[in-house]
Amino acid sequence: MSKPSEINMTDKRSAESMWSAADVWIKKPHVVNKRLCGVTEPEYRDMDTAELNQVLSSLLGTNIEMTDISVFLHADVVVEEHETAGRWCVGVRTIIPKVNKTGDCRYKEVVIKDMVRNAVTFIPFEVNGVGQVTLKSSNIYQIQLQLKPDEW
Length: 152
What we know:
Elements: H1 14-27, E1 36-39, E2 45-47, H2 49-60, H3 66-73, E3 88-97, E4 106-114, E5 119-127, E6 133-135, E7 141-144
């Protein structure tokens, strides 16, 4: 996995700023990536870790290794006060490219917001014309706010 990029911020409202920036990428990625026309707006659902694993298995299929994704999400780390339905907020968005070179293939991403760790994880996958799902495991990425002394 590649080294994450870092942006240092000293504003105490950094958590709000991080969520605002993440929402721009989630709802309007064509602002950042000019090769995109837009996305469908995902409907989010709050869930606990067990529900998250079930949803990922049903969306991505049972042939993927869920433990690798769970470790990446830190879903194996239990935070007692947040293991209610509010820790994870999950939605699926369809990415609409300006030019579709693959025909009937649809590009989608599972968007997972981790409210405890201030992180958003994107798990891309493709759905072909017959409904076969292909996970793009090499393109999983995450935006996260990390607290450092005197900096966010």
